[in-house]
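Continuing from the previous page...

OK, I double-checked the sequence for Methyltransferase domain-containing protein against my notes and this is the correct one:
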Amino acid sequence: MGRVAELAGVSVRTLHHYDEIGLARPSARTASGYRAYSAGDVERLREVLAYRRLGFGLREVAELVGDSSTDAVAHLRRLRALLLERRDRADAMVAAIDRELDARAKGVKVTPEEQLEILGARLYDAIGGAYTATRRTDPRIAAQILDALGDARTVLNVGAGTGSYEPTDREVTAVEPSEVMRSQRPAGSAPCVAAAAESLPFEDHSFDVAMAVSTVHHWGDPMAGLREMRRVARRVVVLTFDTDEPGWQDRFWLTRDYLPEFATVLAEFPSLSRMADAIGARAEPVPIPWDCTDGLFEAYWRRPGAYLEEHVRRAMSVWTRVGPDAEQRAVRSLGNDLESGRWAERNSDLAHLDTADLGLRLLIG
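Thanks. Re-ran it with the corrected sequence; updated structure tokens here:
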């Protein structure tokens, strides 16, 4: 036990406590008859300690490691997803600190509300807390998704977030790894399971259809997640982004003229054809209305001034991914072009369009 405690970086007393409460018990025996940890015991202990270091209480840890439907690989994938979320939180905190340092260097007064950002009170504004304010279901996009679901009665919503686009007339089960997102789901919404797309805790063909809306680009392993969706459901519907088209970076004026770093964000994202092949799907364009109520990245293509608003950008993961320097440069340049009239001159052809095809695609398989 002493050797295991040393390797794990915990005290022997901690291991004794876990043994006493049945959380992680050594089941093997040494030649001298002393209790020892088998390989399986060490694996379970590793999971216990990992969840504890992520802040889970002992009761929560017991439920997690005691789940007989979850194996070591599933635990590793779940831990990976949780750590990625923590990393995103840390990145957002760094971005908040950078903004305050920049403001103070320029002699700009920092408000108490802004100061609290770095302590976490408003931190998730940078990576998801603003979703309920700006990421609302757009009825036109919802209608296209609902049509793709067809006559499915049981629906699995993977990477469900706060619940946008979940049908209300079906039996829905949601999957969302982020505790922050889960906490923002409205009362009465579908039951939500804390799990990652790459390791869905369901039997094969458990659902009529599995859906995923604007979430695949957040997954650690998009292809694995898609294969899991295909495994647990008879059909799959995925709203995602097309990077197959030559010159796709220039479809949208924001990425073309102000934020070329967007291409780097999606550099390792699977091609649309590869994703479609993985789930046996066809691709259908999803036009974005000029007055789209879902504040996704391309939503304000005819309302450029919205991108100057901090709360609007905070509901878009792209800005956190490109970093504060690129964000500030893009916003400053766009603001100047709007004030000078250059943006309107460059994009005069958009003024009378009701919808735009900016690469949003619905995979239906």
